[in-house]
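Hi R.,

As promised on Friday, here is the backbone we talked about, encoded as structure tokens. Could you run it through your design pipeline when you get a chance and send me back a sequence?
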């Protein structure tokens, strides 16, 4: 089975994807994580991607698609949950082409809808440990001592792309590209939209449960 996760950055795609991948036995691939791994390892790809990521912009399609194609080859037989890909119509078309070559298709496009004001608050409140990578939220999961990691005592920092202005830019970028993608998957009859967040009192675990029930009822495979 191949599932794509469409929500905005900060909508909980990562968490929902993690639960779905465990429950359905799929491999989760996040293009954002792949880029961050390259950034950390200071690869040529990471250096190219950083220029765009730091501004909250999309990395150009050709760079992103090449990276994804390479990664997907390992898991074509297992099935994949794609977190953060596709983000443009061109990427969606390329993905269909890659899958078609192996007689596969996107079985579900899950669109997680969370109000943007809530997302800005969620992401810009995040802090990361500069040493062990532990993630805090200054409202919901603050460290015991301000700006110090509970686990290892090192300093917490705010990731460049989690600063409020950059988050707003990432959401603008998402708004511009998502409508086309949603239409694309609606036309393919694989779109499933789920509302989440404080207003509807639904967290990522609730969304994942709802989706698993839907997949089982519809016998999607
Ligand atoms: P994410 O963690 O998924 O929000 O991704 C972090 C950043 O990586 C994004 O703001 C983009 O700069 C870049 N990125 C991730 N996935 C893609 C994609 N499919 N196309 C273009 N850029 C991407």
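Update: got your reply. Pasting your designed sequence below so it's all in one thread:
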């Amino acid at each position: 089975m191949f599932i794509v996760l469409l929500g905005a950055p900060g909508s909980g795609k990562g968490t929902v994807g993690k639960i779905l991948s465990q429950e359905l036995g799929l491999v989760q691939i996040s293009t954002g994580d792949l880029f961050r791994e390259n950034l950390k390892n200071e690869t040529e790809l990471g250096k190219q991607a950083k220029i765009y990521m730091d501004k909250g912009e999309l990395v150009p399609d050709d760079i992103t698609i090449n990276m994804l194609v390479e990664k997907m080859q390992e898991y074509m037989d297992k099935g994949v949950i794609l977190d953060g890909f596709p983000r443009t119509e061109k990427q969606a078309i390329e993905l269909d082409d890659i899958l078609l070559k192996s007689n596969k298709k996107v079985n579900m496009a899950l669109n997680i809808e969370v109000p943007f004001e809530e997302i800005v608050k969620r992401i810009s409140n995040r802090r990361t440990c500069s040493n062990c990578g532990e993630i805090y939220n200054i409202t919901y999961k603050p460290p015991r001592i301000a700006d110090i990691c509970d686990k290892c005592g090192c300093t917490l920092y705010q990731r460049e792309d989690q600063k409020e202005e950059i988050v707003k830019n990432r959401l603008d970028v998402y708004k511009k590209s998502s409508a086309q993608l949603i239409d694309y998957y609606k036309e393919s009859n694989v779109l499933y939209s789920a509302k989440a967040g404080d207003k509807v009192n639904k967290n990522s675990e609730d969304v994942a449960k709802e989706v698993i029930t839907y997949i089982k009822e519809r016998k999607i495979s």
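One thing I noticed while checking it: The mean pLDDT is 94.

Thanks again,
M.
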